[in-house]
Task: structure prediction
Amino acid sequence: MANPVREFLGGVGALLRGFTLLLRKPRLFLLGALPALITSLLFLALFVLLVVNLTDLADWATPFADGWDPVWRGLLRGAVSVGLLAGSLLLMVVAFTTVTLTLGGPIYDKVTELVEKELGDDPGELDESLMTSMWRAVRQSLAVVAVSLLVTVFVFAIGFIPLVGQVAGPALAAVLGGWLLAVELLASAFDRRRLTTIRERRRYMGTRRARVLGYAVPTYFLLAIPFVAIVVFPAATAGAVILARDLVPAAPHRTDPAGPPPGPGAPGGPFPDGRHQA
Result:
């Protein structure tokens, strides 16, 4: 069984290697930062608007506490504020990733291609029409954002737990938000490996959860910092390719041209004994 700490650090290393690889290509790095800059300006304005109105939103959400003792009212509304902030931040980071990938799709596909060729054994582009690829990407991104909405509600609810909620809410937001972030960022590299569904991504991610979180959690925190995200996003895209190579040891090949590619545990997958993963 792999050491969880070593696996987590391996995920961090994938992100750092993404920085190293792209710093060798400054023009592509700057080009990849442009969509992130546009999206950052939009989401920064939304975040400032949220922070400015956070107290009013907490008051609006808890009218029943108006007659409470000031100490208890303050504790409740403080918990609501933390829950709102953590949940909204999670939603914004995931939505930021979705919008940025949509705006800069061709650029980030080029980043993926560059890293694949730099590391060797490039599986090549998916043989698929542009419209089919775009429609699938939009559909999957909307599904990820919908799940992030549910997670946001969960994180908000956790914030109501006195004392524990103030710590557990942001921590859960980072772990769950980071996981959803990885689902989005791994899409391009997985597509090149003929693994085109979210289910397939999640299946491979589940085989090495600690490594995925080692990549995803720091990326989540860095993308949550205004304007730092501009520099981090192209590097995170490159790091996702490195992570995908760790998760999928060899690009799987279709045993049946009309059938889906093998997943972990399937014949032709990374496990030679053909055992199935839950």
Q: What stands out?
A: The chain has a mean pLDDT of 83. The chain has one domain: 4-63+70-247. The two ends are 17 Å apart (CA to CA).
